[in-house]
Amino acid sequence: MINVRDLHKSFGDNEILKGISTHVEEKEVVVVIGPSGSGKSTFLRCLNGLETATSGEIEIAGMTLTDPKTNIHKLRQHVGMVFQQFNLFKHLTILENITIGPRKVKKIPAAEANRIARELLAKVGLVGKEANYPDELSGGQQQRVAIARALAMGPNVMLFDEPTSALDPEMVGEVLQVMKALAVEGMTMVVVTHEMGFAREVGHRVVFMDDGLILEEGPPSELFSNPQRNRTKSFLAKIL
Ligand code: ADP
Ligand code: MG
């Protein structure tokens, strides 16, 4: 589903990604961990075209992202992204937040878009919130709306960038629960998170990024209990 070969990304003279190569299978859940500033967000942003790679190759959902002929708007329909800050449209209702993409971008008729949105609201446990505005919801509820909004486009892959980091602790579980259900259904997911419980329980593979490179990767059970690299060991010692 995702193939990354020798991905480099610089901002000016500053090389942030220094040659990332990895692949993600269909239905695989990959958890990305690593110190702040190691390039995790930049990596995810490259995967959905929010940043342009400086060099290297990215294939995702059947499209070659690094081919200049690839339609980036089309690609984004296939690659959903959920951010730390939920970025909901404050002046739109919950239902409108979910339907605006399908209606404007995919030209889905209103009735059909509303039907899909209601199904997704049920899936994320927010039946009855259709007419509310984002400010009227808790952080955990807003993040679940953001997940429903991404799913409304019918993506093949979902990218999550620290989706629970901005939440009060009591709301973390409800968001992880929705993500877990999505994984169980077979969604292909790349998740940047330091929620190690989620990584252990849901992740098929954990990737440790440090200073713009993948330093080590493996099944959570192996990587957490028997890290090979000193950098991985010292990072895990801080977060486990
Ligand atoms: P992480 O998500 O692992 O904390 P990021 O990918 O956000 O790391 O950032 C890695 C480095 O890239 C940081 O030093 C950050 O300042 C830099 N960076 C990220 N985005 C930009 C940008 N748009 N312009 C310049 N530097 C950036
Ligand atoms: Mg980040």
Automatic annotation (TrEMBL):
- Which UniProt keyword terms apply here? Amino-acid transport, ATP-binding, Cell membrane, Membrane, Nucleotide-binding, Transport
A single Gene Ontology CC annotation of this entry is:
plasma membrane
Q: Name one GO molecular function term.
A: ABC-type amino acid transporter activity
ABC transporter domain: which residues? 2-236
Name the InterPro entries on file: AAA+_ATPase, ABC_ATPase_HisP-typ, ABC_transporter-like_ATP-bd, ABC_transporter-like_CS, MetN_ABC_transporter-like, P-loop_NTPase
Subcellular location, principal: membrane
Q: How does it sit in the membrane?
A: Peripheral membrane protein
Keyword Coiled coil assigned to the entry: answer is: no
Instruction: State the PROSITE patterns in the record.
Output: ABC_TRANSPORTER_1 (PS00211), ABC_TRANSPORTER_2 (PS50893)
Report the superkingdom from the record: Bacteria
Annotated compartments: Cell membrane
Q: Which family does it belong to?
A: Belongs to the ABC transporter superfamily.
Identification of the protein by name: Peptide ABC transporter ATP-binding protein
- Native species of this protein? Pseudaminobacter soli (ex Li et al. 2025)
